[in-house]
Specification:
The complex is a heterodimer of chains A (about 500) and B (about 850).
Chain A: H1 13-29, E1 34-38, H2 40-49, H3 52-57, E2 60-65, E3 78-83, H4 87-101, E4 108-113, H5 119-127, E5 134-139, E6 145-148, E7 151-153, H6 159-164, H7 170-186, E8 191-195, H8 197-212, E9 226-231, H9 237-240, H10 246-253, H11 260-274, H12 284-291, H13 296-308, H14 315-329, H15 334-342, H16 356-362, H17 388-397, H18 405-410, E10 415-419, E11 436-443, H19 448-459, E12 465-471, H20 477-484
Parallel strand pairs in A: 1-2, 1-3, 3-4, 4-5, 7-12, 8-9, 9-11, 11-12
Antiparallel strand pairs in A: 6-7, 8-10
Helix pairs in contact in A: 4-5, 7-8, 13-20
Chain B: E1 8-11, E2 15-24, E3 37-40, E4 47-51, E5 65-69, E6 75-80, E7 86-91, E8 97-101, E9 105-109, E10 115-120, H1 123-128, E11 130-138, E12 141-148, E13 153-156, E14 165-166, E15 179-185, E16 188-195, E17 198-202, E18 207-210, E19 222-227, E20 233-238, E21 242-247, E22 253-258, E23 267-270, E24 280-284, E25 288-293, E26 299-302, E27 307-312, E28 315-320, E29 323-329, H2 332-338, H3 345-357, H4 362-372, H5 376-388, H6 393-407, H7 416-432, H8 442-448, H9 450-459, H10 463-473, H11 481-492, H12 500-511, H13 519-528, H14 532-539, H15 545-554, H16 558-568, H17 571-584, H18 587-595, H19 598-611, H20 613-622, H21 626-639, H22 644-660, H23 664-687, H24 696-705, H25 709-718, H26 723-737, H27 740-749, H28 757-765, H29 769-776, H30 781-790, H31 794-804, H32 807-816, H33 823-838
Antiparallel strand pairs in B: 1-2, 2-29, 3-4, 4-5, 5-6, 7-8, 8-9, 9-10, 11-12, 12-13, 13-14, 15-16, 16-17, 17-18, 19-20, 20-21, 21-22, 23-24, 24-25, 25-26, 27-28, 28-29
Classes of the chains: A alpha/beta (about 500), B alpha+beta (about 850).
Protein name (chain B): Vacuolar protein sorting-associated protein 16 homolog
Function (chain B): Plays a role in vesicle-mediated protein trafficking to lysosomal compartments including the endocytic membrane transport and autophagic pathways. Believed to act as a core component of the putative HOPS and CORVET endosomal tethering complexes.
Subcellular location (chain B): Late endosome membrane; Lysosome membrane
């Protein structure tokens, strides 16, 4: 039991226990002593659901990191590879297996694909002549990992990049699968809302998958009243701003050395941008940052923030920044800049129209009178700026999106509503005063400040809605920008 | 009920055997059974007859006829035998008919006479011909054992997974054994054979002579042997008319019997009931049937007709031209209740209920009697159990009524056993019906399981009955109705006279979205029958892309598979189809296909990025995606090429691509980079050190640091570095060098575009207060206070702040006033503030 997962409205321990059970069952299939060879990327997520003691109880005696050439020696009966379904990893596994065969006693090999088995990878193993060496080839659908009583993450680093830059919807498919698992455990979610292209796709996949599962009628009383799917690119602004909640600050400052004065200057600039001041010309603070060769990520974050707060930069301003960056940090960053443009974070203003003020005013994104001690509005998390994403959630719950149709049309991607019919026996009759539970899924990542804002809404006396948050990745502006950077050497 | 036990025959003191009719057969046989090869499947299965089997004197005009009947004698199939001579027939556990030909080929037919497949028992069998053959059943499946003309045995323990095993030779065997059988011990099939007075056991390694313990002397030959249904017991019939009964391991004798008939029996089979202590065998001669066991007397029946025995789990079925009967040991519960003058609780309860119906007070007396003994629960249980063993529905009803009556007087009798028995009997009565013809007993039904029974109904194409049973028993849809509908659909697709559209529509109408129905399985069946179009139509209804796509690929509908995979969102599936397509199509067609599927195209691009870089370039070229081509060449410029010329050439291609993409900025930046690269190369040659791949900014910095100011200036001019940034750059570099003289010179070269505060800051950063102070004085008024504070001149900072009358500055200075040294200054500020407030 993990106590921290069971305090919320929805007991996420149920999910944790379900995934742990699945893991135990797999381990027990490979009878005898075992060594696990890890795809390094997976150790973090696994650590959250199964400590070493659990593995040890199931006769895991050794753990290695997946590397080329030979496996380290280990006197065990089973060698199990825990890997993501990636071709390059299959090549390494094949190398391991082939060099193993030539020496020592025969051992049983197994593969556990996380989170999905892949025909493509199995074909590769077949081509490399080792597919037959594996006794168990199974999948472990570890999609959503419980982090906290109201927080789930897929910890998929590349999700945003894959979705928005490479049009690769693999992580969306996993997200949909994860949502199906959640529904299997917590009941069918009767209403699905969404905004954005990816949200639409995930909803489509869910509806499709539901058709595939018609066999097992879900008879669990629904815990969630609705699901809100949000594309990260509907709100590119929020992660760019510096988070000013406790957790957010720790997240932001960790690993970054800045003088406090500079930090203050940076905040001032951010706040100016977000409140719509001087977003259309070259900013001298950014200029100075570049001239002093401050960390590139910080510079990019500010430039992107300015671009987003101005619905794109004037071509001249944009080119100036780009040139400054290339000259100072190196030409190779032209690839990164292009990535940021593709993601819509950095772009020339189209048609010379700045939509941001309309969005800001309609959604009340900028609040001048913030009470940080006793907040009354979510804008406290950014000292004045109310995260757009959370505002959308708030407005959806009350009074509904119909009131903001115009702004929704300005924001990218379609907005939609789907209903998943429930058998009459499972339909909920809400008690007066009982809060609704909304599962909000951020496709492409969520920040701690957004989480704080949603928790604030959950705690409001008359809020009417409690939130459980799911995401492809817990992130901040820096890690986000970093994931979009490309270093050719 | 006086006459009820009329057909009960005692065997010894402890057991009764009864024989009752299952069906009267009107199968209208044209020949005597004795003229046919006969095979009847256990568990009330079908009966196969091969009329006019092959005879030595070949009469060409008379072809053998293979007929298949239900156990009730309804014809299921009839076909002219056109293959080779058949030696033996037998049914597999899946109710497939195995016909063993003389040449060792086994032909397999379905229940409806449909040919399924054939296999051979091997070359040795082919050469020596088949003398005799047996089909037997083990836990692994159904096996075939062959005795060849060379008096050798070959067997396969499971025809589903054919592995032929040639058994060891029996030393000195000159003629065929007088009788033989297959045994199954320790999960291995053996052969037991009799030659003269000797018995031999063949396992796969050796032949060993065996002797039954306690066998009466004087035996010179064994005429017949029989293994029980569960392979546990063995019976031997000798030429002295003596029957030995014991365990199949030949370790223990159970009993023996001397019937004094020396004529070889036609058939001998075991007749026992699971969990019963009684052991008996049934021996049949031409007109005589004898039940013998551990008793001095046997039970004898006269056979009016040519009859055939079928051993079952709990008895023996006996069929002839006109009837089909079941002979078994009367079960305990029935015996207790119906035995004459029985005082068993069940018997009393049955009486009580009858009296109750007659409205007689005797009911109360009986009931009291049972209750006084505290045996009412037992009575109810007995009646329920006995009902299960009754064949006649009226008897079942009367026993269940009695049980139900008794239940009324019990507080807590769990209802399940009663309910379940009612349900089971309802199912049993339905399938025993003449039209269905599966005469299962309750014990057989339980052993077989409802799942297998449903399979058998499906085999007989009795879909509606199967579905009714599922619905009646409320079986989960996936195991029940859905499965049956799926079977129905698989049958339906084989109806070649119906059009694809009609079949697909009919199937969808009936199946709809029924959970657990696999349209892809049905489609696979259709494809197997050569109906590809129908398969595709059926696959349209398949919601699981994971099932749909591989089958489409198998049917070579790759493009359709691709769009289905894309619809599913399962990228792995899309990849799988893509790689399939890549091998199937030529490159041009493949690219064209991709072009129409943007999602697949982007996935393939990702694949190429990691696996086939050159293909990636071709893809961009095809799509005139110059922007991406540009990026591609940039990456290439960093990747492989070591020499500057190569890198510059790659960049030139990138620049060209950017021009085509109308991305002026990127093109210019790329050209600048080409220039820079060449220049860096030159610098390395001329000055040594490392320049290549430094940014422009760092190149200039390196030059400044190396004391090449002139070159640095030149570079800055050539690449138009903005003044402000250049000042920052030089400032930082010179401070790093701690070249204070040069820094001061630089500061005076012209008016600083970045002001002088950065000078102060950077000197302080290098802990040079002396230098810092020089610049502090030059800092403009707006930042003066900040500068003075930086160099630690709090007093002067206070003065300036007071002069500026700037509250923010005053506060800032005040915050720097620490310790006694600054007390005066702090005072001064406070006074100035007070004064300001007065005004």
């Amino acid at each position: 039991m993990a106590a921290h997962l069971s305090y919320g409205r929805v007991n996420l321990n149920v999910l944790r226990e379900a995934v742990r059970r699945e893991l135990r069952e797999f381990l027990d299939k490979c009878a005898g002593s075992k060594a696990i060879v890890w795809d390094e990327y997976l150790t973090g997520p696994f650590g959250l659901i199964a400590q070493y003691s659990l593995l040890k109880e199931h006769e895991v005696e050794k753990m290695f990191t997946l590397k080329g050439s030979r496996l380290p020696t280990a006197d065990v009966k089973n060698i199990i590879f825990f890997v993501r379904p990636r071709l390059e990893l299959m090549d390494i596994i094949a190398e391991n297996v082939l060099s193993e065969d030539r020496r020592g006693p025969a051992r049983d090999f197994h593969i556990l694909f996380v989170p999905r088995r892949s025909l493509l990878c199995e074909q590769r193993l077949k081509d490399l002549g080792v597919l037959g060496s594996f006794i168990h080839r199974e999948e472990y659908s570890l999609d959503l990992i419980p982090f906290d009583g109201d927080l789930l993450s897929m910890e998929s680093e590349g999700a945003f990049k894959e979705c928005y830059l490479e049009s690769d919807q693999t992580s969306l498919y996993h997200a949909a699968k994860g949502l199906m698992t959640l529904q299997a455990l917590y009941g069918t979610i009767p209403q699905i809302f969404g905004k954005g292209e990816c949200a639409r796709q995930v909803a489509n996949m869910m509806i499709r998958m539901k058709r595939e599962f018609t066999g097992s009628q879900n008879s669990i009383f629904p815990v969630f009243d609705n699901l809100l799917l949000l594309d990260r690119n509907v709100d590119l602004l929020t992660p760019l701003a510096t988070q000013l909640t406790y957790e957010g600050l720790i997240d932001e400052i960790y690993g970054i050395q800045n003088t406090s004065e500079d930090f203050f200057d940076k905040l001032t600039v951010e706040q100016e941008f977000m409140s719509g001041i001087d977003t259309d010309k070259v900013n001298s603070y950014i200029e100075d940052c570049i001239a002093q060769k401050h960390p590139l990520i910080k510079v990019l974050r500010l430039v992107c923030l300015q671009s987003v707060c101005n619905s794109g930069l004037k071509q001249k301003v944009l080119d100036y920044y780009k040139r400054e960056i290339l000259q100072t940090y190196g030409y190779e960053h032209i690839l990164t800049l292009y990535n940021l443009e593709k993601a819509g974070l950095l772009k020339p203003q189209m048609g010379g129209r700045n939509n941001y003020p309309t969005i800001r005013k309609t959604l009340r994104l900028w609040m001048d009178d913030v009470n940080e001690q006793n907040p009354t509005d979510i804008s406290y998390v950014y000292s004045g700026y109310a995260p757009l994403s959370v505002r959308l959630a708030q407005l959806l719950s009350r009074p509904g999106w119909r009131s903001i149709e115009e702004v929704l049309r300005i924001l990218p991607g379609p907005h939609f509503e789907e209903r998943q019919p429930l058998p009459t026996g499972l339909q909920k009759k809400r008690q007066p005063g009982e809060n609704r539970v909304t599962l909000i899924f951020f496709l492409g990542g969520v920040t701690f400040a957004e989480i704080a804002a949603l928790r604030f809404l959950s705690q409001l006396e008359d809020g009417g809605t409690e939130y459980v948050i799911a995401t492809t990745k817990l992130m901040n502006g820096a890690s986000w920008i970093e994931s979009l950077m490309e270093k050719p050497f | 009920m006086d006459c009820y036990t009329a057909n009960w025959n005692p065997l010894g003191d402890s057991a009764f055997y009864r024989k009752y009719e299952l069906y009267s057969m009107d199968w209208d046989l044209k020949e005597e059974l004795r003229d046919c090869l006969v095979a009847a499947a256990p568990y009330g299965g079908p009966i196969a007859l091969l009329r006019n089997p092959w005879r030595k004197e070949k009469v060409a005009s008379i072809r053998p006829v293979l007929e298949i009947y239900s156990a009730s004698g309804l014809p299921l199939a009839s076909l002219l035998w056109k293959s080779g001579p058949v030696v033996s027939l037998g049914w597999s556990a899946e109710e497939e008919l195995l016909c063993v030909q003389e040449d060792g080929v086994v032909l397999v037919y379905g229940l409806h006479g449909d040919f399924r497949r054939h296999f051979s028992m091997g070359n040795e069998v082919l050469q020596n011909r088949v003398l005799d053959a047996r089909i037997f059943h083990t836990e692994f499946g159904s096996g075939v054992a062959i005795l060849t003309g060379a008096h050798r045995f070959t067997l396969s323990a499971n025809v589903g997974d054919l592995k032929l095993r040639r058994m060891p030779e029996v030393p000195g065997l000159q003629s065929a054994p007088s009788c033989w059988t297959t045994l199954c011990q320790d999960r291995v099939a053996h052969i037991l054979l009799a030659v003269g007075p000797d018995l031999y056991l063949l396992d796969h390694a050796a032949c060993s002579a065996v002797t039954p313990p306690g066998l009466a002397p004087g035996v010179s030959s064994f005429l017949q042997m029989a293994v029980s249904f569960t392979y546990r017991h063995l019976a031997l019939f000798t030429d002295t008319g003596y029957i030995w009964m014991g365990t199949a391991s030949l370790k223990e004798k159970l009993c023996e019997f001397n019937c004094n008939i020396r004529a070889p029996p036609k058939q001998m089979v075991w007749c026992s009931r699971p969990r019963s202590k009684e052991r008996a065998v049934v021996v049949a001669w031409e007109r005589r049937l004898m039940v013998v066991g551990d008793a001095p007397e046997s039970i004898q029946f006269v056979l009016d007709e040519d009859s055939y025995l079928v051993p079952e789990l709990d008895g023996v079925r006996i069929f002839s031209c006109s009837t089909h009967e079941f002979l078994h040991e009367v079960p305990v519960a029935s015996e207790e209740i119906f035995k004459i003058a029985s005082m068993a609780p069940g018997a009393l309860l049955l009486e009580a209920q009858k009296e109750y119906e007659k409205e007689s007070q005797k009911a109360d007396e009986y009931l009291r009697e049972i209750q006084e003994l505290g045996q009412l629960t037992q009575a109810v249980q007995q009646c329920i159990e006995a009902a299960g063993h009754e064949h006649r529905p009226d008897m079942q009803k009367s026993l269940l009524r009695a049980a139900s009556f008794g239940k009324c007087f019990l507080d807590r009798f769990p209802p399940d056993s009663f309910v379940r028995m009612c349900q089971d009997l309802r199912v049993l009565n339905a399938i025993r019906d003449y039209h269905i013809g599966i005469p299962l007993t309750y014990s057989q039904y339980k052993q077989l399981t409802i799942q297998v029974l449903l399979d058998r109904l499906v085999l007989r194409r009795l879909y509606p009955l199967a579905i009714q049973i599922c619905e009646y028993l409320r079986l989960p849809e996936v195991q029940g109705v859905s499965r049956i509908l799926a079977h129905w659909a698989c049958y339906k697709v084989q109806q070649k006279d119906v059009s694809d559209e009609d079949v697909a529509r009919a199937i969808n109408q009936k199946l709809g979205d029924t959970p657990g129905v696999s349209y892809s399985d049905i489609a696979a069946r259709a494809y197997g029958c050569g109906r590809t179009e129908l398969a595709i139509k059926l696959l349209e209804y398949e919601p699981r892309s994971g099932e749909q796509v591989p089958l489409l690929l198998k049917m070579k509908r790759s493009k359709l598979a691709l769009s289905k995979a894309i619809e599913s969102g399962d990228t792995d599936l899309v990849f799988t189809v893509l790689l399939h397509l890549k091998n199937e199509l030529n490159r041009g067609d493949f690219f064209m296909t991709l072009r129409n599927q943007p999602m697949a195209l982007s996935l393939y691009r990702q694949f190429c990025k990691h696996q086939e870089l050159e293909t990636l370039k071709d893809l961009y070229n095809q799509d005139d995606n110059h922007q991406e081509l540009g990026s591609f060449h940039i990456r290439a410029s960093y990747a492989a090429e070591e020499r500057i010329e190569g890198r510059v050439a790659a960049l030139q291609m990138a620049a060209d691509a950017f021009y085509k993409a109308k991305n002026e900025f990127a093109a210019k930046a790329t050209e600048d980079q080409m220039r820079l690269l060449r220049l860096q190369r030159r610098l390395e040659d001329e000055l040594g050190g490392h320049f290549v791949d430094l940014s422009l900014h760092d190149t200039v910095t390196t030059l400044v640091l190396g004391g090449h100011s002139k070159r640095a200036e030149q570079l800055a001019r050539d690449f138009r570095i903005p003044d402000k940034r250049l000042w920052w750059l030089k400032l930082t570099a010179l401070a790093d060098l701690e070249d204070w003289e040069e820094l001061e010179k630089f500061s005076k070269s012209k008016k600083s575009p970045i002001g002088y505060l950065p000078f102060v800051e950077i000197c302080m950063k290098q802990h040079n207060k002396y230098e810092a102070k020089k610049y502090a004085s030059r800092v403009g008024p707006e930042q003066k206070v900040k500068a003075l504070l930086l160099v630690g001149d709090v007093a002067q900072a206070a003065d300036v702040a007071i002069e500026h009358r700037n509250e923010a500055e005053l506060t800032l200075v005040l915050s720097h006033c620490t310790g006694t040294a600054d007390a005066a200054t702090a005072d001064k500020i406070q006074r100035a503030r007070a004064q300001a407030q007065k005004k």
